[in-house]
Write a structure and sequence with these properties.
Length: 236
């Protein structure tokens, strides 16, 4: 079940350009609990992000990747440690709210078209670091930051992957160090990561037949509905 759903999310992520981390909690939370979701997705990303960074290596903006990583690193560590202190109920509320908020946030960031440089770029990177350590599916925030810093196209894809891979090592290490990453969770992470290549190839085939706008609408509806369901389960 996890493999099939992961394959589907990789297809959606490959078409929309983001969102795998936002969709996986919808099936993982009922199976392993909300407190285990972020560590599992974090470890799975250590498989998918390096592959993506290597694939687009020529387009990687190394200076911006290093700058964002250094600015976000302390906050990522703090966010990851804070997540280890949450109960299962608190984690589910956090993830449910995040799923609902991320959709309008993506449209807001795109509409504002803010240009980031210097202190603003550093501050945005620091804030992203905390979100990455504490929650899943924050890729849309990093993508928006990189585009606001002047990156476009495959530069965004490559730099995003490199930053996520480097910060992912830190947060996964913290989860493992505090005992929230078990061997069963490691198995699930590897299973999710293994679906990246076939899912991406399928997404490339599908994207030639449907518009990206259509998939984004379906994707946004699924995220908001999933977040609402998670919150209803908590307060029911």
């Amino acid at each position: 079940m996890v493999a099939a759903f992961s394959f589907g999310t990789q297809i959606i992520g490959g078409i929309a350009g983001y969102g795998t981390g936002l969709l996986m909690p919808l099936i993982l939370i009922p199976l392993i609990g909300a407190e285990a979701v972020v560590p599992v997705i974090s470890l799975a990303a250590l498989i998918t992000n390096p592959t993506r960074a290597i694939t687009f290596w020529k387009d990687l903006d190394r200076r911006k990747a290093i700058f964002v990583t250094l600015c976000a690193l302390p906050a990522t560590a703090v966010g990851a440690y804070w997540f280890t202190l949450l109960t299962g109920r608190d984690a589910q509320i956090l993830i449910g709210c995040l799923l609902i908020v991320m959709v309008p946030l993506r449209y807001l960031l795109r509409r504002l078209r803010v240009r980031l440089a210097g202190p603003g770029f550093a501050g945005a990177s620091f804030g992203f670091g905390f979100l990455m350590g504490a929650t899943p599916g924050t890729g849309v925030v990093l993508l928006s930051i990189l585009m606001a810093a002047g990156l476009t196209g495959t530069q965004v894809i490559a730099t995003d992957a490199a930053i996520s891979a480097l910060l992912g090592v830190v947060r996964t290490g913290i989860y493992a160090g505090f005992g929230v990453l078990t061997w069963n969770m490691v198995f699930l992470s590897v299973l999710i990561g293994a679906m990246a290549t076939p899912g991406t190839l399928t997404a490339r085939w599908i994207s030639r037949r449907f518009t990206a706008e259509f998939h984004n609408v379906v994707f946004d509806v699924a995220i908001v509905a999933g977040g609402a369901v998670l919150l209803l389960q908590v307060f029911k």
